[in-house]
Amino acid sequence: MLSDAKALHADLVAPLLGSPVGASEEDVGALESRIGLKLPDTYRQYLVWMGRDVNGIFRGSNWFISDIESNREVLKDLLEEIGSQYELAPSHLVFFTHQGYMAAWFDASGNEVDPKCWFIHDGMQEPGMSGNFTEVLLADLKGLASCLPR
Questions:
Q1: Could you tell me which residues come within 8 angstroms of residue 123 by beta carbon, excluding any fewer than 6 positions away?
Q2: What residue stretches are annotated with the Knr4/Smi1-like domain (predicted)?
């Protein structure tokens, strides 16, 4: 499922920043135990591929396995700050935040292999749909890769 993202990373990012650093299967299993959710397959693949790549293409944002639990609190604060009525469910996994003013998440309660994602930033009143996880990942990789020096 992540083949397009992996190919883009190999072509445009790895030559400049190196290969990504992933989390171990044990780390992913421990995360699932702590949060009480079974992670969707595509998200598990992402974590094993680049879930610890804190000095890579996503440096400066919170895309990593170590951020999952704190990302939830960031999103709660953001929703409160903008006065959103959105109800964050216990099954919502906040996989991305950036400097407290944007966040993305999905519902991990279903059996979706590649879950649909929501996104919000501080200029919005309510969250919007932003595609499935692989689409969000690929779009962010493309955008950030286009900013790398050539």
A1: none
A2: 22-139
Domain extents in the chain: 3-145
The CATH number corresponding to 3-145 among 3.40.1580.10, 3.30.450.40, 3.30.565.10, 1.10.260.40 equals 3.40.1580.10
Whole-model pTM over 0.90: yes
Q: How confident is the model at residue 121 (pLDDT cuts 50, 70, 90)?
A: very high
pLDDT of residue 106: 97
Q: Average pLDDT for residues 140-145, to the nearest whole number? A: 95
- Euclidean distance between CA atoms 38 and 62, whole angstroms: 20
Mean of pLDDT values over 11-23 = 96
How confident is the model over 43-63, as a mean pLDDT?
97
